[in-house]
Each structure stands twice: as structure tokens, then as C-alpha cells.
Amino acid sequence: MSFDVEKVRADFPILSRQVNGRPLVYLDNGASAQKPRVVIDAVTRVYEAEYANVHRGLHFLSNLATENYERVRAIIARFLNAPREDEVIFASGSTEAINLVSYGWAAPRLQAGDEIVLSVLEHHANIVPWHFLRERQGVQLKWVEPEADGSLPAEKVLAAVGPRTRLIAVTHMSNVTGTVVDVGAIARSTSVPVLVDGSQAAVHMPVDLSLLGVDFYCITGHKLYGPSGSGAIWIRAERQAEMRPFMGGGDMIRTVTRDAVDYADPPLRFEAGTPGIVNQIGLGAALEYLMSLGMENVAAHERDLRDYARERLRSLNWLSVQGDAADKGAIFSMTMQGAHAHDISTILDKRGIAVRAGTHCAMPLLDFFGASATARASFALYNTRAEVDALIDGLVFCRELFA
Q: What are the boundaries of the signal sequence (predicted)?
């Protein structure tokens, strides 16, 4: 199917509003994406007509909610082309998902002196859980720096693997620079388990877990046009068998007595308590919406935006773009001499343009680039070339104010 961006934009109610008397130009998608009508309607429908707690209930609404909720596991598996839907574990997002692996898989297995290989590209969600193991168990973090252009060759990550490496934890796409990492090449070239933070990549390009060969792959719903508090992690069945439960409570057990507990089979073993029922159903609606558009079509549209934005940004010789690698998503982090990133963001906001300013939960990467903060414009499937032009005009206006 062809990709009609104006038709797509009509699916997102918020895009018709104005901010500060200007049409909204939403370029903060790397933080969180807007929601299409089908997601809003799905969430509303559940609360208005279908809500009940899931599992174990024998009444009509509970059975209906359980069916709709569990159906999302299959939708996620289809979206990621995962081998098995029971390898999909629900989480509130990538942060909880990575902490699940840190506590449930890594903590019982790693000893003082064991190594985890990390890249400097990582979001704090894929750094701090491993620092917990460094602080508490003496695990060593082995850092891999990107190239000057922000790229991260697979061979550079593999070169950091040693005899005591127990895990490689790496992003699939940087939330700061958009750099795409060939995680499949990494996973297929080592026997060390590989965890991939797919929070950004799954939004912007097709992901095929049957080909990548990784062991853990997490997604977060609010970036995928779904509700906040939704997400999942795919964990290979062999790795699930090596894990202990992350949290204890209802739904993750078979039986509990005064003297013992018998845990449920995965994935329920790792899903304690009443889950984010409505949020996950909304995520299912978002993923079905994306699949109806076709992720190849989404990726092609965003490549066009990336190339156009890159060309226009390069014409501004007073602007620095950090990590503009050849293979990247439509994410641009920028600095301007004489203007703080917060000033840039504030001035753009007055023109209705939403960008993010700060460290983007990636302080090691900003340190690598020698920047204390950047202004980040991150594009999505509903953005247009005209919005790129609006961004450029806004940046020129900033420059004139600070010249």
C-alpha cells in the first residue's frame, strides 16, 4: 500500500490543535508519541463497556477482558515476528522489562568479576540496572564507545567480549542520535546472551526476531503510539527457564501454602499482580494500526524525512548535529553556539514546535560528545517535510536572536 501522510495525520486528533497560536509541530516523538483514534477508542471502549480484572474470573466481563488482554501477547509476537507468543512477557515498558532481566536472570548468575558489555549509546534504562549489579555484586561494566559520527560497528562491540563476559546489553537505535546498531550481526557472532533495547527501533523500522538471534528484546508502548504504562519483553524460552521471578504476588503462582509456593509457568511467572489491562489492550490496538500501515512503509516515509532534514540541517553551518551516522533514524540532537538547548526548545515552543532539551536520559553519550545538553527533534510517521521546514525556520529565528 502507498503511504498517505495526510490521511495518517487525520487519525491523530491532537495534531489538529494549535499551540501558542500556531499549528502544533510535534517533534518530541523520541520521548513519547501521540495516539491515533483507534487507540483512544480502544481504551475508552474497555473502560466504558468491557472492564474487569483478568484471569480466574468466571463471569462474562472477566472472560472478555482476559480474552482481549491475552490476545495482545499474540499481536506483539506477530509485530516482532517472535517465534512463540508465550515468550512475550508484559511489562509497564522497557525500564521494567530490563530490570526484570537484571534481577531475574543476571543477578542469580553473575559473580564478582563477571562482565557486562554496554555501549555508550545506551539510555539510562539500559545502564542503571547493570550498575545495581556492579554496586551489589561486583560485576564489571565494560563500555564500548561509538565512532565519532555516532555509529557503533558490530565488530567493535564483539571486540569487547572476553572470557568473563556474561551479557551484552545494547540499544537497537539510539534515542539521542538515531544510530541503528546491527544487533543481529552481534548476536549471530557470539555465544554470549544479547539483550536489546528496542524502545526506539521497533517504532521506526521492521523488527524480525526470528532473524536477529538475540535473547532478550524489549519494547515500550508509549513510544509505539500506545498508552503509557504498556510494553513487553520477548525472552527466549531457554533464558526464561534460567530466571527467577522478579516480583511476587497474585497471578504468578499455582499454589501458596504456609510453607511453600509453586510458581506458574512463564510468562505468567513474571507477571505478578493486577496488570495494566487497559494499557496493554491499547498497545495491541496501536500495533495493529502500525501493521495496517506496514512498517516498511513507515520506515520509507521516515527515511525521506531523515534525508530531507539532514540536508536542510547541514545547510546551517552554525548548528552542530551530534552523531549524524549514515544508518540512523529520523532523530537529530543539536547544539548552537551561544544558545543553551533549553533556550532553543523554549523559543521553538513559542512557534508551536515541540522538541526536547536536556540529556535525554543518556548522560554517558552526551559526555562522549562533549555536550551538557542538546535540543532533540525526533520525527514520527505523521510528520511532514513542511514540518521540517518549520523546524529550520525556527532554528534560524533562534540564531538571529542570539547572533
A: none
Q: Is the CATH number 1.10.10.10 carried by domain 5-30+294-402?
A: no
Encode pLDDT of 206-232 as tens digits. Answer: 999 999 999 999 999 999 999 999 999
Q: Where in the chain is the domain with CATH 3.90.1150.10?
A: 5-30+294-402
Residues carrying CATH 3.40.640.10, the chain: 40-292
Catalytic, out of 128, 185, 272, 361: 361
3-state SS class at 143 = strand
d(CA 178, CA 398): 24
Q: Report whether 270 contacts 245 (CB < 8 A).
A: yes
Q: Which CATH architecture has domain 40-292?
A: 3-Layer(aba) Sandwich (3.40)
Q: Is 99 exposed, middle or buried (0-12, 13-18, 19+ CB in 10 A)?
A: middle
pLDDT in tens, 315-370: 999 999 999 999 999 999 999 999 999 999 999 999 999 999 999 999 999 999 99
Separation of first and last alpha carbons in the chain: 47
The dihedral sign for the CA sequence 69, 71, 75, 80: positive
